[in-house]
Amino acid sequence: MTNPLIHPDRLFPPDPATRDVARRLYGEVRDLPIVSPHGHTDPRWYAENEPFSDPAALFVVPDHYVFRMLYSQGVRLEDLGVPRADGGPVETDPRAIWRRFAAHWRLFRGTPTSLWLNHAFATLFDIDVPLSAATADLSYETIDAALKRPEFRPRALFERFNIEVIATTESPLDDLKWHRAIRDSGWGGRVVTAYRPDPVVDPDFEGFAGNVARLGEITGEDTATWTGYLAAHRKRRVYFKEFGATSSDHGHPSAATMNMSPLAAEALFDRVMSGNHTGADAEAFRGQMLTEMARMSLDDGLVMQIHPGSYRNHNPALFERFGRDKGADIPTRTDYVRALKPLLDAVGNEPGLTIILFTLDESTYARELAPLAGHYPALRLGPPWWFFDSPEGMKRFRELATETAGFYNTVGFNDDTRAFPSIPARHDVSRRVDCAYLAELVVTHRLTEDEAAEVAHDLAYRLAKEAYRL
Amino acid sequence: MTNPLIHPDRLFPPDPATRDVARRLYGEVRDLPIVSPHGHTDPRWYAENEPFSDPAALFVVPDHYVFRMLYSQGVRLEDLGVPRADGGPVETDPRAIWRRFAAHWRLFRGTPTSLWLNHAFATLFDIDVPLSAATADLSYETIDAALKRPEFRPRALFERFNIEVIATTESPLDDLKWHRAIRDSGWGGRVVTAYRPDPVVDPDFEGFAGNVARLGEITGEDTATWTGYLAAHRKRRVYFKEFGATSSDHGHPSAATMNMSPLAAEALFDRVMSGNHTGADAEAFRGQMLTEMARMSLDDGLVMQIHPGSYRNHNPALFERFGRDKGADIPTRTDYVRALKPLLDAVGNEPGLTIILFTLDESTYARELAPLAGHYPALRLGPPWWFFDSPEGMKRFRELATETAGFYNTVGFNDDTRAFPSIPARHDVSRRVDCAYLAELVVTHRLTEDEAAEVAHDLAYRLAKEAYRL
Amino acid sequence: MTNPLIHPDRLFPPDPATRDVARRLYGEVRDLPIVSPHGHTDPRWYAENEPFSDPAALFVVPDHYVFRMLYSQGVRLEDLGVPRADGGPVETDPRAIWRRFAAHWRLFRGTPTSLWLNHAFATLFDIDVPLSAATADLSYETIDAALKRPEFRPRALFERFNIEVIATTESPLDDLKWHRAIRDSGWGGRVVTAYRPDPVVDPDFEGFAGNVARLGEITGEDTATWTGYLAAHRKRRVYFKEFGATSSDHGHPSAATMNMSPLAAEALFDRVMSGNHTGADAEAFRGQMLTEMARMSLDDGLVMQIHPGSYRNHNPALFERFGRDKGADIPTRTDYVRALKPLLDAVGNEPGLTIILFTLDESTYARELAPLAGHYPALRLGPPWWFFDSPEGMKRFRELATETAGFYNTVGFNDDTRAFPSIPARHDVSRRVDCAYLAELVVTHRLTEDEAAEVAHDLAYRLAKEAYRL
TM segments (chains A, B, C) (predicted)? Predict the structure, then answer.
């Protein structure tokens, strides 16, 4: 008997002949190891290997995909246990939180969240009844009991998930102590860091000047000067590479880049460090730093990821009460053609450099990103991101990008998640959707099944390893 | 024998298994009453219950979907009986108009207009041959004869269409006499008004200052002052509520909103009333009034609809000759993320408020609208509007919005029409397309058929009633 | 036995019933003559009728679709024989070029290039094994041998391709000597020119002022004056019409148009001719010339094509080394609603004028282009262009444009190619994708099969002839 929460044919094309091809292609990639080159799991989990505390803490409280949807329908975040910035009272009973969540489960119909959670419920906890107010207690107890068992500790799950390598994301100011602890523990799991310098390259980041000063202390460079500041980055990247880093990651409001003369860049650095800078200065500095980081990548080989286009903290009242990452980040229209030109003029023709572009503006896939990646040797396209890490989002990405960029200017899948139990589900959705897309190409005779099988394997495994140099 | 103009399986997915599911889902919603919470039918029809005069007057002359298409291919509007602004001569023979229309019927291949008209021809007049020059006279005579019969009068059609409730749209300057007449007539049909204040909130509207003065006379408020002007709106909304209004409606060039201090708002009001205002002032005033109206909604419970993004009267020569609403309104790129922020900062977190957003820029569905509606408690997404009230438009809306906003941040269907006989056809298209979409989710195992049946019912009936508080 | 490179059902819908309809529709249009109203083949080929030299020169070296993809993956253009601007050394061995190309064939999986090339390999050279490093020499030798045979000379291929008429594109400065030679040769193939005035209407074009002076010499008009300049265009258009021209073509960075007073236009002309002009002047002048050309079209009947929205030569290092048209032209976001208004205000209501709009910004299909073309008598929509001349691109065009513009505001297919052997393949892809789309409409009962057959014929043949007046 199959578990109805995870039908073996889910996400495959309805047409029987196409479905057959999709099944065969999927059969060859289903069990490949997971390569997770970009994400936000907490390295402390792997270092300490403590149990997850309860179902609400695992599935509801930290997952902005989940609580934003309930919030949109009038549920207070306090009632879901989301911590307040001022430490004020919120719901502390995990079962009460779980019941509220379960009672609103229908809100997730048709969303990837329901796919991910059903996958976790079914594969990890053998649950086979849909979540609802009526089944809330049963699922709560089932999950809660399991979490107390050793095979549900982080390292055991890591191994069960068949993760070959996973990247976390840390600030240059992070001492990487959890990564050190993992390394020192003798455990065989491969967990690497990634260099995410937003706190020290974005003048609008809270505490920017202090962060830069702290970077100087950590590296022993004089970050009050432009050359010292750049040297500090170079040193810190080396340090990150010692803990496995193969990439840097950059989350900017836009894709704007700059390529100023050293003198002009130095003057700009002095302005932003003084705090007497305009919004345009901040944007220019972030843009200049993308080009500087690309130059550093030429030297040290880190792959560069650019994640632009999110209007962060759109809801100031919510931000004040609960802080960042509470579901109030909204995508905006994003230009790449003009924005990336200064960086591309500088390094776009370097075949030894890899810059992976992401977007939250799907109108750029076919118009801008695929033509750029289908030309510049340094560019690759990242997988569908955030709201678009979804069956329809992935399908649109392939349909819009492939004809111009092909498959080999893309880099396989990123789960990009903080939600540990969703990792296998997300990779599985990606493999299924890619196989469904490839099956369509096969039955419409745009690809032979042999070619499709090779591409399926590349998309599920090889391209991520190669693009991220893992 | 089925009528070939309305095949029972129309708009269902071709795959047999998916089609079966769609048929079953549709079978459960096909006969639900029509809830029409937003539209532009003429309340006079229901008040006077006079017969429609002839086929051309019913189907061609008032329908800009129809005559714009013929105009695009060189047919003069005069020859279709469209009245000239100067009262100059136009075709007056309805049969001649009908023949011209019929001779160009092929232009509508692949358009929703052909679906709507074929539905009306078949279900209302038992016509079962395609329209063409050859069949023009036959269909003309069939329809013309029917229109003279009592069962084709507006109230009889209203009942035949199984309309549970329909909203019309009136200006604050309207005395609602036809709504009063309907109420006084003792007829049981539920026809409600909606508050559409464009003539008194848009400084660019013809006769704006005079309109505002007239609003003062009607309400007994001093609309020469900002506070009197706001009070007049409040009073008038109460009056509209007496005639069933549960919503206001706002058709602006953009989605721009403002949230100025009372003093600044008052100064702006004085500028726009003086006529000495800039284009930016007009835009700011419209934006400020959206926020003011949202605040009034918090008090009086009217649901707020925002219909932005149409470049009205793009063709000045045509506008001069024939006036507004002649098919020359063209959608434009529309921003929501920055534009709505002032209003959302003010009232976006109010769970008791409902603001329904529409768009003519489909690139915003997944990028802006679904993330906004999937977060802010006050926001809901209206159905595909105008050019997108079509099978492919509806399909794109579900594919682009559902994964992020879910189904329950949407509000069911609006027919939004002036074309009375198209109402059942439009709701039927919507029900079919939604069932087709849901059937895809079922056969790809993203939803169980039980869940899909519940959602189908919600989309066809319940959500519109709830969102519009009808 | 079917050749696996060109499966007879390729690009048809997977659903068996839909596929059957598509097959029948396609069967009726497959063998229609090719009408190629817009493209960039070299008239010298038809005039001289010399053999193509070798496989690399035919398929790789001149095709930016091909070499840009290899370049994006790190292959140097020098190694593909692409000539350097400075005449420096590049690979000259066609077999070495062919082997490099073949070794990277997998990059084209899922792209239209693989469809086009497989079609040419199979139908022209009877190749039935996929290209790869292993088969490179075999295919090279097969093609090379064939090219030496008389039936592979340009005129023979023209006839074999069943081309009824083909348009090339020439600058007003071109003497059309190859067109004259074709005409004088007595050969029956119909090859016409088209008027592409970019070098003399774009102030940013290399050598603009000299080009305008040269136009004066050619026409005997004083092109140092605005009136003389306009007169020169008029004369030159007459000359082009003698060589069959029925259209002009305009490739601008944006769709901006202007309609200045004669005095202001004259002053602008003087500024751009002096070289003392701003970027805004150049944009205004290009825009003004679109309106001037539209007025000339009213007189001389040339159909006007506007191809806006490409950021040309995005990669300056590559431009410097190899020149134009090397795969570094990137689409940009394009506005039509405001940009075209001056031109449309002037001539948009003229039913005797035909302006064909193209786009590289698919977000405008449904939002801007279809509503404009579904209203203005002078407007028609060109087929999917460049990156979108592809199965998914064509499908999106129909899905996004048809419901608002219908089929009859579109103009059939353009191959728009420099790659002679791809012409039959491109028209075949278009016919297949249109038949697949129409078959979907038939099985979802939006169109009868009779209607679909008529539309298929119109899209494959009639509309191009009519719209281009060929």
Answer: none
